[in-house]
Write a structure and sequence with these properties.
Helix content is about 55%, strand content about 20%. It is an alpha+beta fold. The protein has 2 domains: about 200 residues, no CATH class; about 180 residues, no CATH class. The chain has a 6-stranded mixed beta barrel, surrounded by 4 helices. α1 packs across α12, α2 packs across α12 and α2 packs antiparallel against α14. The longest helix has about 40 residues. It is elongated. The two termini are about 30 Å apart.
Length: about 400
Amino acid sequence: MNLPLVIAWRYLRRPTDKLVSAVGAVSILGLVIGVMALVISMALMTGYRRDLQAKLLGGNAEIYVYAPAAMFRNVTEVQRAISKVDGVIDASPVLVQQGLVSTETLPTGEQIMVKGISPLTNASSALVRKIVGPPQAFFSRSENPYAAIGSHLAARLGIKVGDTVTVTLPTDQGGTLTPRSGTFLVGRVFKTGFFDFDAHWIFLDITEARRLALTDSANLVEVRLAPGADLDIVRERIDEATRRSLSVSDWRTMNRQLFSMLKIQQLVLFIVIGLIVFVSTFNIVSTLITTVHEKRKEIGILGSMGATSSMVRRIFMWYGTFVGLLGTVIGIVLGVAVCYVITRYELVSFGPEIAEVYFVSSIPFINRWTDLAAIALFTGTVSFLATIVPSLRAARLNPSDALRH
């Protein structure tokens, strides 16, 4: 039997003094609040980064191949060469251009990005399926071809499914840029939760986009990789397959600054909130000092019975460690529960103005085991260090002096 452990646990369960009990409860509560804040803040940053990454990859490809000029000379040949590369499951030519959309109620129009895609070849993307809906809609034989419009953009334009819009693109006619317009039927109003798509993009069938832009080619090939494929290796293979004549990029390169900034923010947030946990451990010090003062008689009795100063020191180190562990466990459990409720009911969501800054309309709070383990290790270590000085003070008490009180 570990006697110091048993005595420390008894002191924690059955404090004989109301002041000691109150100070102990306050120290545990302070630690719970600090740990809970740390769990929630780490879940916020992790959820935001994962959600942003998932939406970027869901609506876009892992690798992008650009033409050195405005358009590919032979996009079919490029697509065929890329498709043969190991690790590639889909290579889809797309046409992306900046344009203008206008309606009867808004003749001046809104600046947008138009993306011409093939709904059938892009069906492997979950986000694209969410955007375009049933692929057959884009092949409607109605008078006007279909277009998919983001929910925020549709709200600004004051349109709904079934209305018509006019899309205008700049076209190159003999070296001169000339605007060319087409009328489209709104076949779908999508909401992805990714503000950039929902507020600035219109998706068309690539055949209609080419007809509007007066071209039979594309200016971008989006490449999707097989699960588990190494991004760097596949990118190098694509570069070799295209004889290094095209520009090859990937989603990490295009968003490197954004995700580097998020990692730095998460680290800074951990340090700042960690200071709250560090400060709350001073409550453990005050609890131990008060307990040592209240238990002077018991310390004297133990010393007179042969307990060494090392045993007395371990008693109060165990006591402080128990306080730290209790506060840590309760804080982690409450923090995880709060994160679940926030994510389940989407309590952290933004309007269009804020979503435009943060790129997403709502943020899930995701707890990783690594984050929870790091928080538990940090809090446990700090709590243990807080027990050293009061425990040494208790060990230095002279049994005769303690019994005199």
